Amino acid sequence: MYHEIELSKYWCPRKDCKDYGKTGKGNIIIKEKYGKEGRYLLKCKTCKHCFSETRGTAFFCLHAPKEEVLRFWRCFPKKEAFVVWLAQRIIAKARSLAGLRLRGSIAEM
Length: 109
What we know:
By secondary structure, this protein is an alpha+beta fold. It has one helix at 66-108, and strands at 28-34, 39-44, 50-52. The chain is built from one helix and three strands; from the N terminus they run βββα.
């Protein structure tokens, strides 16, 4: 259930910290693991601020396993593509019908 993380990719999210937004400074450490998913609580050695490894990501504050969320997202693009395809078909049909009606109206004049 636990996983390894690359600490050099994390940065302090506290805006008044002198290392705010700077990666690879060596100031981020693992404070502890928490929760059922074994997420890491990270700590900035510069300002002592603690934050979740998921802070600033789509997984922050989600109470669902990461795998479950990823499974949902894998389905999303397919559904979105279908909706776009369907919308294009509806628009094409509406244009076709509008063109027929317009031609009929011109013919009656």
